[in-house]
Amino acid sequence: MTAERPPIAADPAIRRPLGDIAAGGDRFTQARVERILQLVVGLGASVLAAQAFLTAVGSVQEQRMWHLALMITAFVPIALMVVSLLTGVLVRVTSTVCVVALFAVYSAWPIATAGVATPPDSPAWVWYLLNVTTAAAAMVAPLSAQITVAVSIPTLYLVGRLLQLGTAFPVVVPVVLEAVFAMILGGVIIALGWTLRSVAVEIDRARVAAVSSYAAAAEADAAETERVAVAALMHDSVLAALISAERAATPREDALAAAMAREALTRLANAEQDPGEGSDEPVTPAALVGAIESSAAPFAAGLRVSSAARGDAAPIPGRVARAIVLAATQAVANSVQHAGGRGLSVELGTGSRRVFVRIVDTGDGFSPDEVDDDRLGIRGSIVARMAAAGGRARVHTSDAGTQVVLEWERPR
Known about the structure:
This protein is α+β, with helices and mostly antiparallel strands.
């Protein structure tokens, strides 16, 4: 029993770090989309962190004892996360630490700025890091946690700045706008990540379904091909042996029927190895005539194949010649079995590119619509066999007789 594939996560935001992703067929696109997001977030976070650091170096908004502590708490985890995102190592750990550290920075900001006079138009360096926190959460947290961070961090910034600057109307408006802008941008970051991951999940799911469907179709086709081949083999060899045994009237004919039965059993035992394909060495038209006469001898002793081969006729590939011989033999067997071999004649014609064999009898004909589905004499042993070799077979029947034409044309 084959093991079932693990189901793909329904929530694209729930992921493993890149190092743990099995980049097989079921996570191929997800792994690559995740890597792209890591690189983009890493580069974006490094730019924002650089702006915040340059502003923070000369900042006088915090108390002196808090200034260095806040900078270390904020920028060391960001630096580690950027390196981790760019290298794809320990992404989950460093991103989680970064979110926690920045949350602590924003929580401590009102305490760090208490008692320090700050001009209302003086920018706070922590503003640049609002969306760094949201992006870090987007790398490790599920969707609900991402939304929580995108709302709570700007809210903490809003509260801290209002405690720092006061609640006068000229101060409140720009601070609220800054917080709302951070929330909107954070929502865009979350939406983009969710969309890309959702598309990746669907692509991988479609790929897995397509591969599974193709494998099932290939398995069904192989089974049907094997069934038709074995059925044709049964029809050709076993039926020929039974007909020979039924018509055997002398010890020599009995021995011939027994030999045919042994050959049929051997071919059935070796059916998996497809021994009927044979060599692909070129066969001359004269050799093809001899092969048809020899193969049809058990059904129509003394049958002669008339040949109208042109002098410039090229040799025929061995696999094609083998298919023609077997199909022609089956046509002869059908004529002997169902029409008594009346007026039976076989003609071979060749040209520079075309080979045909025509088997004709003057029996009563038959109705193709009345042939049972499990009878593969024409469908499997003649039509399908010629089609497999790149040729075609046409059957014309009427009250005046039946004509089977086997054709193969050399590719240009």
